[in-house]
Backbone:
């Protein structure tokens, strides 16, 4: 009789009620121990950036367990996805498009951050497309650190280095493609 009653109760309550999207959350994520340093970043830069962007509180344990405390579900999930992108990165492929952020300029081009921890080189010969094909003497005249630019992965060398080229708005219409719309990591200059 007791088992019959428990079966009836299980049918009536088959799953827990959905939690409100505004309810505070505590999530845990397991990351490989060798990736803890990448999640934290130099002097805590990555973890502080994630906390600033999402509003979540993040604690990393020595065994690779990452606890994410947030005031709502959206912030918690956003922080979890950012941590997973660092700890378990998806390898980029040739042809993928990103809205990247310029993190460094040099005499031969600009380094553009595509995702947390993944940068690519936009060669000076590609930067000339941004100024109508004119010769670019100084990269800083066209691009500055922190500036957003639409890029596409042109080549990945055997060492995993990314070579990028500029995607202009008219390129999207000509090819019929749509940008992947992937958001970059924001970095402080």
Residues:
């Amino acid at each position: 009789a007791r088992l019959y009653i428990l079966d009836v109760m299980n049918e009536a309550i088959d799953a827990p009620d959905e939690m409100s999207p505004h309810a505070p959350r505590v999530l845990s994520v397991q990351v490989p121990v060798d990736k803890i340093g990448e999640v934290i970043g130099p002097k805590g830069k990555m973890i502080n950036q994630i906390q600033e962007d999402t509003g979540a509180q993040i604690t990393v344990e020595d065994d690779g367990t990452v606890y994410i405390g947030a005031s709502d579900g959206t912030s918690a999930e956003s922080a979890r996805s950012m941590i997973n992108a660092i700890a378990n990165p998806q390898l980029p492929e040739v042809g993928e498009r990103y809205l990247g952020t310029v993190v460094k300029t040099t005499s031969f081009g600009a380094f553009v951050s595509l995702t947390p921890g993944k940068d690519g080189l936009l060669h000076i010969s590609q930067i000339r497309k941004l100024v109508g094909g004119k010769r670019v003497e100084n990269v800083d005249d066209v691009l500055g650190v922190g500036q957003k630019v639409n890029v596409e992965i042109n080549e990945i060398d055997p060492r995993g280095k990314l070579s990028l080229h500029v995607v202009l708005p008219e390129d999207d219409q000509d090819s019929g493609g749509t940008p992947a719309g992937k958001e970059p990591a924001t970095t402080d200059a």
